[in-house]
Design brief:
By secondary structure, the chain is mainly beta. It has one helix spanning 4-21, and strands spanning 47-53, 56-57, 69-78, 81-91, 94-101, 109-117, 120-132, 143-148, 155-156, 161-166. The strands form two sheets. An eight-stranded antiparallel barrel has the order 1-3-4-5-6-7-8-10. Strands 2-9 form a two-stranded antiparallel sheet.
Length: 167
């Protein structure tokens, strides 16, 4: 059974193929109503495709089901930076995947991606990549974001990775 999001994604892919066949080049959706102040002008994607691999079971026996590809929606600028988000039914006490590009710190801009819990900090899995000091072009294609050690009890995340692409 297809979900509405799958059908919508298929329609977009078919439309993109048709436009490509007519010589029109299709680019990832860009630049929602608000621009990310930490991205180069005109490069903020409305959606990010985030692929998680390598999570294994620890205290929870369903961790491996979180190894998947997610489409995160742009939610705008906030206290954590410019963020995209995907909500899902609770798995191993997690129910949200959030990705943010933060303001420059000592190492420049950072991209963070992680699982958490809406309204709480019961447990987190966090991936962080340094993007350098200059504002990055946020039209990422297979940006590799390594896991950062956390006090994480539910899942083993030692060798897991997060790969990010603009959609």
């Amino acid at each position: 059974m297809f979900e509405l999001a799958d059908i919508f994604r298929l329609v977009i892919e078919i439309a993109g193929i048709a436009l490509f066949g007519m010589g029109i080049q299709v680019q990832p959706c860009c630049c929602g109503s608000s621009l990310c102040q930490y991205c180069q002008s005109g490069t903020t994607p409305n959606e990010l495709e985030v692929t998680i691999v390598g999570l294994t079971d620890r205290e929870c026996s369903d961790c491996e089901t979180m190894n998947d590809t997610y489409i995160l929606q742009w939610i705008g600028d906030g206290p954590s930076g410019c963020c995209w988000r995907f909500d899902f039914e609770e798995i191993c006490s997690f129910d949200v995947l959030v990705a943010c590009i933060s303001e420059p710190i000592a190492l420049g801009h950072q991209f963070e991606c992680g699982f958490g819990r809406i309204g709480g900090t019961l447990d987190v899995i966090v991936y962080v990549a340094s993007l350098g000091e200059a504002k990055p072009n946020c039209q990422w294609s297979n940006l590799n974001v390594p896991v950062t050690p956390q006090f994480q009890r539910q899942c083993h995340d030692d060798s897991s990775t997060c790969t990010v692409s603009a959609v």
